[in-house]
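User: Second chain of the day. Same drill as before.
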Amino acid sequence: MVHQLKHMPANEGEGGGTRLPSPDAGPYDILGQLPDLRRVSRYCEADDISCFLRDIASVLAGDRQRMAAWRTERGRLIESIAVSGRHELKDIHETLNRIEIESFLLTYSVGSLHRNCTFYRDELAKRAMEIVAEELGGKGTPVPDIPFALISMGSDGREEQTLITDQDYLIVYGDGGGEAADNYFLDYSTLLVDRLEEAGFKRCTGGIMPVNPTWRGSLSQWRRRLMAIVRYEVEDFGKNMMDMIVLSDARCVAGDRAVAECLIGLIRGMARDYFQVLWGMAKAATEMRLALGFMKRLWTESAGEHKGEFNLKLLAWAPLVMNIRILAINQGVPATNTVERIVLLEKEGSFAAEMSLSLRDAYYILTKYRILMQINVIKGIQSDAHYLNPYGLPAEEHEKIRQAIVKIEELQKIIHTNFSIV
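Assistant: Same format as last time:
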């Protein structure tokens, strides 16, 4: 019982556009209603009940078979990455993405999709790195005898990869290699960005790639760069502040873990220790606009191409991720994953259990719809993966999204108060 995305008419009376399947209307909904079956059975014949239960068992058995087949195929493809050539990686990547689409439409498990996409993209990135080293070695340029690592940021750094991805990477290498090392990693980064693009990782439109000198350097070069940001020694402070925000989600993907952890520790320490920098990040987070209008109704565009819609990423999901990030940095929470950060913030006392649960629910409901819209884009049903028409959803789903954004507004107020932002 795989649920397919498709065009459906909007609810009569308001809005229009694409109706997305409810993330909570999965094939296992009946399991949550089993206590009600006893009441239903009072009005049914025994044969009818027996037939109904056989149908449920048949559906569950078919779904288990599908899930087992996907696990087998996924495992085979991931094993093949290590021995694949550069021209094979894109096909493997696309097939793995297809499996995740089918699996998600069956289970609507955001966590599983995050884990699987992050894992196999790490494996693809590692293989791309090996291919680059082999290519440069074949040209007589061996890897320098210094440690280096590839570090991811953004959704990849948070282990929250979804179906559409781009490159958000930096490279750090050990000191002592001098100009020769700088030149090598320029060539290495240039080729790596090309190979990743060939494998299906789009180039980052914001330039967050190691081919950009801002995102490549030795440990000492990175230390000087970070100190210039936190000491306000840079001209474009706004851009550098955004770079610091991006860096706060850094995660080692491949290479020498010691040199990677050294840089990651430096980033987190500076973000936490230089309060003025963190205060600036908090101010930006609390000022992020939300899709809430009069009487806390969902706000949508009143005219233009996206009339009756709102940007789910910019006006809901991103403010949640950003504000949780700020609290996590301030409290010294080591995790980068948003849900893990929420759980750890609850444990150390930043959130009550009810608030923690509400924020996790908010993350899952918003991310489910982001993924569903990505599937629509991949299937050619719609051209934009960010704009959602909330009035094309069932009333219950509409309200869940509204409540999620109301909770994000509460979170902004908490941070606004904690950081004494006026």
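Residues 274-422 form a domain with the Four Helix Bundle (Hemerythrin (Met), subunit A) fold (CATH 1.20.120).

User: Great, on to the next one.
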